[in-house]
Fold this sequence. Notes:
The protein is α/β, with parallel strands linked by helices. The protein folds into two domains: about 120 residues, Glutathione S-transferase Yfyf (Class Pi), Chain A, domain 2, CATH 1.20.1050.140; about 150 residues, Rossmann fold. The two termini are about 25 Å apart. This is Heterodisulfide reductase subunit B. InterPro entries: Cys_rich_dom (IPR004017), HdrB/HdrD_reductase (IPR051278). Keywords: Oxidoreductase. GO terms for molecular function: oxidoreductase activity. It comes from Robertmurraya kyonggiensis.
Amino acid sequence: MTLTYAFFPGCTLESAAEELMISTKKVAAVLGIELIELDGWTCCGASHIQDIDGFLSTSINARNIALAEELGVSKLITVCNTCTLMLRTAKLKMDKNENLKEKVNVGLERTGLEYKGTVEVTHLLWALLEDYGLENLKKKVKVPLKGLKVANFYGCHILMPPDVMGFENHRNPQSMEMVAEALGAECVEFDQRLACCGFHAVFPAQKEVMTMTGINCLSPKEAGADCIVTPCPLCQMQLDAYQPDAQKGFDQDITMPIIHLPQLIGLALGISPEELAIDRHVVDAIPALQRKIQAV
């Protein structure tokens, strides 16, 4: 089967989380998913721009969606929780408010674009369940992740606010568990499963966020997890890149590998950790994966 999506990578995949871009493209190719990157996309605003200029926030994301509409596809896909939130928020506002839509389109007209509202915004995690299907995913598994205990860390923006995101029960989501179990992994229950990673508050509240980071790593470690898996590059960055700094505030060893969702999928598809760019992480995840997964 072949699925085609307009692809909004977002800023992080072209900078600090290039490993997610690499692994996403590798996995998509094996699964038969065509990702057409938007030509000329712009930053989604990363959940901050609306505090300064709400109309601009809506306009730039309406423009990104309009670029997807130009491709003639039905869905625009991302692999970032925050990008998904920002794009869906703009779409919801535009689709509910014809006056706002007209005002935004006046500006878009100068660039030769028009927001029509014909494209749905989705996340790779949701697309795997809604479009691809778990049974089809299971058929692609070459290296079952049997014995690997994963802690699924959702991140705030793929769940909330529920009236914007709304894919599943935001108080007890199961999508990550469903995908991980389809790959053969064992899901570990831990207290911080639905916690905030702290990424968007790291500069104004660094001390508090470092404590959050440590707790978010220690909780699954004490529950017996081999690694944390997250569908969001910002959560991955906060828990991985800032983990050494967070360790300074804890007597206990909080060391916990943090991997992206496409990397977990890629391992089950038989793609090597190096090809998935897992060796680029700050906290070395490869030894833990090698101990538990055959052929890694």
